[in-house]
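Title: Comparing notes on inverse folding

I've been comparing how different people in this forum approach sequence design from structure. To keep things fair, I'm posting one structure and asking everyone to reply with a full sequence. Here's the target:
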């Protein structure tokens, strides 16, 4: 599964700061963070099996990210959730309008959480509830594999640490250090999501270790008030050893799209 922290309008220099870990099976083919050849305005990693992505930005300062909702009873769905992030980032209309389609088609996907920045706002949508996209007030938020800010131990611990980092300037290095936290939560604090105690314990760390399944990459995003910004990715193997890193920067947009 995954963990994502976002600070919205908590810093005058960077109104949006994001720190996230992507957890996935190590055998799932994945492309590194890069500008996409067929969509050069889009920077993201890529799920090479289904073609979508879990997190990305555009040269205009638009941002979108997704986490799965942990629901062992959920069946298969006809569409890949990675399409949602890709389509939001490439949509010609602004983010509030582009969220209307996934809101209408929410049951075509497995359980998901979706965050998107654009048009002067940060928005949240899930397909567990029937609620429309929600415009988020300024604050520090955490998103794991339940609804926004569900107080799982990894989320509450990481959100508090992230809030302090943002107050101190939130350099990419300090954010990466926070994300590389392999400590599991105490058993008495674990949620019960139906995956069993052993797996629940392993998933309770910010950085998930595992031979078959674990944290594949960490990402830090900072978007400035003028829409310029940077995105950094560090990748890891099944032994949590670094396998590569990418850093990309983007200039302010020519139009108002993506203004924060």
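Reply #1:
Here's my take.
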């Amino acid at each position: 599964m995954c963990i994502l922290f976002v600070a919205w309008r908590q810093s005058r220099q960077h109104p949006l700061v994001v720190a996230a870990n992507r957890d996935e099976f190590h055998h799932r083919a994945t492309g590194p963070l890069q500008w996409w050849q067929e969509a050069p305005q889009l920077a993201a990693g890529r799920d090479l099996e289904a073609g979508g992505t879990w997190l990305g930005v555009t040269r205009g300062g638009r941002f979108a990210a997704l986490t799965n909702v942990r629901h062992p009873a959920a069946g298969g769905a006809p569409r890949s959730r990675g399409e949602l992030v890709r389509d939001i980032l490439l949509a010609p209309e602004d983010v509030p309008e582009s969220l209307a389609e996934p809101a209408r088609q929410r049951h075509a996907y497995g359980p998901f959480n979706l965050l998107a920045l654009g048009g002067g706002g940060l928005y949240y949508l899930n397909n567990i509830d029937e609620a429309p996209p929600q415009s988020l007030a300024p604050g520090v938020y955490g998103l794991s594999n339940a609804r926004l800010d569900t107080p799982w131990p990894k989320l509450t611990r990481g959100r508090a640490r992230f809030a302090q980092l943002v107050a101190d300037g939130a350099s990419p290095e300090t954010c990466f250090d926070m994300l590389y936290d392999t400590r599991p939560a105490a058993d008495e604090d674990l949620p019960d999501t139906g995956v069993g105690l052993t797996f629940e314990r392993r998933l309770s760390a910010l950085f998930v270790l595992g031979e078959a399944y674990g944290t594949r990459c960490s990402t830090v995003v900072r978007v400035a008030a003028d829409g310029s910004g940077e995105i950094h990715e560090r990748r890891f193997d099944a032994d949590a050893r670094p396998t590569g890193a990418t850093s990309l920067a983007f200039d302010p947009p020519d139009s108002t799209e993506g203004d924060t």
